[in-house]
Amino acid sequence: MVVTWRAVVLAAVLGIPVAVAADTAMTLLAVGVLVLVAVVDIALAASPRAVTLERVLPTSVRLTGTATSRLTLVNGSRRRLRGVVRDAWVPSAGAADTRHPVSVAPGDGTRLATTLTPTRRGDRLAGPVTIRSVGPLGVAGRQASIPLAGRLRVLPEFASRKHLPSRLARLRELDGRAAVQVRGEGTEFDSLRDYVVGDDVRSIDWRATARRSAVVVRTWRPERDRRVLVVLDTSRSSAARVGDQPRLDAGIEATLLLSALAAHAGDRVEVVAFDRTQRARVRGASGTRLLPAVAEALAPVAPVLVEADWTALAATVHGALSQRAFVVLVTAIDPAVVSAGLMPVLGGLAARHQVLVAAVSDPELAALGADLATGDDAYDAAAAARTDLERTAVAGLLRRTGAEVVEALPDDLAPRVADTYIALKAAGRL
Amino acid sequence: MTAPPTRTPAGVGSGVGSGSGVGTHSGAPTVRTTSGPVRGDGTTTRSRAARRWRRVGWVVALLALLGVVALILALVTSPGSKLPLAPDSTQPRGAKALAQVLEAQGVDVHYTRDADEAAQLAGPGTTLLVVPGLTWDSLDDDQLRALAATRADVALVAPDDATLAAFVPELDDAYGYDPLGAGPSCDDPDARAAGTVSDQGGGYVASGSSSDRTVTLCFPVDTADVGSYAVVQGATRVAVYDDARLFTNRDVAQAGNAALALRMLGRHHDLVWLLPDDRAQASGDAGPAAASVLPTWCWALLGWSLVVVLVLALWRGRRLGPLVPEDLPVVVRAAETTRGRARLYRAGRTRGHAAAGLRARTAQRLATRLGLPRGTEPVGLVTAVARATGRPAPDVHDLLYGPPPTTDDALLALARRLDDLESEVHP
């Protein structure tokens, strides 16, 4: 049961006869009139439970993008449905206006569109649809909240895609397409062709030249079909806020850029999100299907407040990879956690694979104590220095096992990881 | 769940594919929700009523139980006031016991709280009992004069000064403290019948004002000329007792209290029992005025405005559907542990420790920038830095490996100088 502003006005107007008569009988009569009007109006309102509802959503939308939730409702009652319909969403779905005034004839239908601008990655859930149906007098009515499942998958923003063109250009420089076609480390035999003036004489294949009467040179190209495994740490250290988002989100950006780059370079990419168990996994996807698959798989991944089980992770990596591969561990360099968890297993991993530890550093740490104004700032600076020393020491220990370590601010991590990948590829260390 | 009606408007079913792929990753087609069309929430009027009853039923049951208990209590406990010395009060300080005995003996007790009414009721051949009100001077002079003018026999118990002066100017308050307890010591038959009474002192003494009435003092206190009980006999008889507990339910049965009280009040067939109402006097000035200033329609409108406010509350209070909860990400910042460490340094004033951290980081950064190998001795680092910056080597050594600062200001200065040193060395 609901009443509207008109009921308030009606009650206020009924105050006039009550004041004029100023006796109990008139007051009771006025109350009676008020209740009678409300009851009649409620009885004449369309039943909100006789409405058939259906919500149509896009499967996914990228963060900062816009989606539309389309609600179809068909009035199944024998009375006209007047009132308001609310298409409820969680706050971070960014629904612009969830309340829609409706007036639907019996048996007729209508469509309502709610614009969603999500502010967070992940699965954004819809709430129930609330129908407030008021009677023909508009004084009172009925209301019901109908549970209607709805889910909008919000994909990571992939803001680092702006770095992709420049990195692809550098990848093409590595590749033969940009006229750099010399033998070097990190290249493999591509094909034989006739010698043209200007070719490096060192690349002449004498054996083939002897078989034919023309001079033949070998051509080279960067190694292809390498395996790249990105391991995304979703344990508690990834939950902490860096800037205005969880540390995990910066790691996802780096994962997406690296996946896009590696897919263009012809490598086979696999992504695992892991804490104590596997949270998400992408394998077997290649080419243009890879990036959507990674974005889709990582969209609902949320940090879990548990300690990562690096031993189990190492077993997973060993199981997934039979040959030498490029393993990227996207995590945080937390001295206590690293020395207890990651360090013992990293040696084994680095012995078999090329390991890159990518960590998100905190801009707040650099800002802490940068402004030396009072004595308290000096203590802040000292604490930041101590943390810095410990992290540097841990990073040094990690490097000593043979792993590469990239530590960068959230916005810089993705391009830095991409650069390291290109550098390793150029050096033939994949 | 019922099938959707067949009269679906055109375009509803077919047009849902349009507008898809807005910002989606790979032009993903729109899909319907997994649940499909939904009609109603699966409840009926009966199931909703049952659910509501489950939710608020215990409140209703509790209220009903409370109501029943209140009803039983109201039926069991006898009605009656809780005023001290009221003839209908069963409290320890009430006087119902006395009033009931008097009525059983054929005395009509006219209980009133209005002094004017008491003055009308009292007259020759009646007894007028004036008991003290809740406050001092609860009767004004006019009322006292009117009461004294009735030619009734008067019984006073613990009267205040004004009352005493109005009825028996022949007596004064005496502030005795030691009842002799030797019986009535007078010729009054009532006192002799009582024998002894419980008494706490006080008493009256003859004031010496000229009068044609005879004063009898009984139950002496301290000395023989001070009495707890006084009888002034003239055209009418005035009996005064100094302790209100003579009449109370708790004490009336002690010693000869009952005999004295019954004989004081039971002289005539009619007893006017006056317990002055303090509020009648107090509110007499303001009470009727406030109500009569506003016209009646105003009161009606005021009452009706409550109804309007109720409807307003119903309108604004009903939410359009429930809130949709959401699990939020962690809000703890990653730098929180470092901040905590800074607070520990600060709380402990560990300047040496803080300075060591700052120096170690600067040394490490300088070594990295100057390309020195790991494990370079301090001497080597100092020499390299001195060469790179042009500073004297002892200064650099003092900065990097000097004694720890002893004050906060010294620590701050050290931090600034280390910053300066770092900025002078370029990789």
TrEMBL record, chain A:
Keywords: Signal. Residues 1-21 form the signal peptide. It holds the Pfam family DUF58. It comes from the Bacteria. Residues 192-368 form the DUF58 domain. The keyword Signal applies. This is Uncharacterized protein (DUF58 family). It comes from Luteimicrobium subarcticum. The lineage of its organism: Bacteria, Bacillati, Actinomycetota, Actinomycetes, Micrococcales.
TrEMBL record, chain B:
Residues 1-47, 186-210 are annotated as: Disordered. InterPro entries: DUF4350 (IPR025646). The keyword Membrane applies. The chain crosses the membrane at residues 56-76, 294-315. Pfam families: DUF4350 (PF14258). Keywords: Membrane, Transmembrane, Transmembrane helix. Residues 87-265 form the DUF4350 domain. Residues 12-24 have a biased composition (Gly residues). It comes from the Bacteria. This is Uncharacterized protein DUF4350. It comes from Luteimicrobium subarcticum.
